[in-house]
Amino acid sequence: MNIKPYLIQFLKYILVFIILICIYLITLTLSGLIPSEWMKDNVTKSSEVLYEEGEKKFIDLGYKEESIFLFTDALMINTAYSVDSSTPLTSSLLARKNYIPGQTEEVYIDSQYNLGASSQYINQSNGDLYQTKELYGLMHGENITDSFEYARYWHGYLVILRPLLAIMSYSGIRIVLLILSIVLIGTLLFLIGKKINIQTAVFFLIGLLAIHIFYVTQSMNESIVILFGLIASIFILLKKDTKKNIGINFFVIGSITIFLDLLTEPLITLGLPLIIYLLLMQKQGGSLKENIIDFFKICIAWAIGYGLTWLVKWILVSVLYNRPLMQIAFEQARFRSSDSNGNYSLGFVVERNFNFMSNAIMQALTLFILIYAMIKLIINLKKKINIKENILKCIPFILTALLPIVWYFALRQHSVIHAFFTYRILIITLISLMILPDILFEREKEKT
Questions:
Q1: Residues near 280 by Cβ (< 8 Å), separated by ≥ 6?
Q2: Which of 46, 193, 213, 331 has a beta carbon 3.0–4.6 Å from 208's, enabling a disulfide?
Q3: pTM of the entire structure?
Q4: In Å, what is the CA distance from 277 to each residue of 237, 247, 270?
Q5: What are the per-10-residue average pLDDT scores of the chain (448 residues)?
Q6: Cβ 270 vs Cβ 236: under 8 Å
């Protein structure tokens, strides 16, 4: 067995990973050089909007009430403002909030479970934190002297958020996110229609509308990873040689995901481009065996990129700043994946997330899939259909549809507590299921 090609491939992954980590550190340093004074007016205006709307914004859609989590947006803006430009990399890696040189008296390291807050912004009866009120107080003259680190995440969003806050407030950022989502969705649907087919473009649009994509842009935290998922999907569609370096491509996608994200809906950056890749491969005549191998290869590459990048952050902070972050991070991972003394069964977690999608949407989509399947069957009834072969072709998409269920099982506690946004990874399941009738009732290609 010639191991040279495998060794070369392994070295390519190592080199790409080193380059990625260097890019992360450099971009965090560069964004950290922006003086917080340049952002002060816009952060103050942002704090007023968030204070008015509260920790969670509720939007009545008629058939359901959509929850937009602003708690974390306030934290992100606070963290962005609290970067000390005299020590840009240290400030970015430690990710402190409430940090104002000359005012801050004590800095608390990342704690075991929840992020801390100044005492006046903690509900003493249940321990709830009030991030929006704390940010407002910080920016309106309150003498908040306690600072808190949140070093377990990369906080790569700072690379985008700090420059934006230097030129606009939270309201402007929301407009940018909305415009960006419209442009990305339009580009994605056009490319899907051109390179795959129109009906698949419609399925993607339905899936995006089902997770209320345009309302999601009201929250930076919830929208960043979805927008990156759209960018990753467009990238796969634009590749000239779709199959070339596909493992490395998804390794990079997984790595960038955890760099940007604070554990919202990261699976979307795997699921959406994976569906597109599988469809492109089937259109190009890829075999079932190749598609299944590619499915597992892509999932593993994405997971390694995601997990290894996160691990490096823990190691860097532990070594450079003598923080017990490895212990804290692994304990937090155990906590997030627990079933809370048997209260979070997989069935309960899945049901809770489907409920946040809303019964009305699920019923409508189920009916749509059934009707569409009947139409496809009727249209192709007199055509030659190899049902056995087509069922086998469905396997990679069935596996993809199950990815959110695997995620919910792996992060049960997190997927219950934050179901109001973790339900959005079900877009992967919905699109995969809508695609099945097209594959199942595909007519046999005529031999030439």
A1: 195, 196, 236, 237, 242
A2: 213
A3: 0.94
A4: 8, 12, 11
A5: 79 96 98 97 98 93 89 97 96 95 91 78 84 96 93 96 98 97 98 95 95 95 96 96 92 98 96 97 87 96 98 95 85 70 81 87 86 83 77 94 96 91 96 92 62
A6: no
